[in-house]
Write a structure and sequence with these properties.
With 154 residues, the protein is an alpha+beta fold. It has a single domain, classed as Nuclear Transport Factor 2, Chain: A (Roll). It has 4 helices and 4 strands; from the N terminus they run H-H-H-H-E-E-E-E. A 4-stranded antiparallel beta sheet has the order 1-2-3-4. A hairpin with a 2-residue loop joins strand 3 and strand 4.
Length: 154
Amino acid sequence: MNKHCPCGTNKSYSLCCQPLHQRLAQAQTAKQLMMSRYCAFAQHHIDYIVDTHAPATRHEVVKNDISQWAKECQWLSLLIINDQCSGDHATVEFVAWYHSNNQLQFHHELSHFIYEDKQWFFHHGETPTNQIQLPKRNDSCICNSGKKFKKCCG
């Protein structure tokens, strides 16, 4: 598989997120975990999304809802806005762009992560207060195709 990983790196999926999804490796940072979780949505690896949720809040996860949302969307790209780490806590602010019901949409979140038992886990997310704007017509497309937004996903 030579195609770039859906998480947005220039690596192939087999060298990027696939080893994490197959449990052959663990995310070394909260940012890497965030990117691999986005990729898991795009690749429909729902068990990985559930398994990387913090044990203390995993009971809040509804696997069927996650699976349905992941399958209803055409995942386009992930934009990491900011990531910060302080000891065993970290935050990652991101925007995930996707098509659903023939409309361009996005999920903007400030994700909170914890490091316990020698691995990173997603704990919870919240909606940031800053607003996300759709790209302008002549901006580069959010899907990283190299085309203008108006000629691609716009």
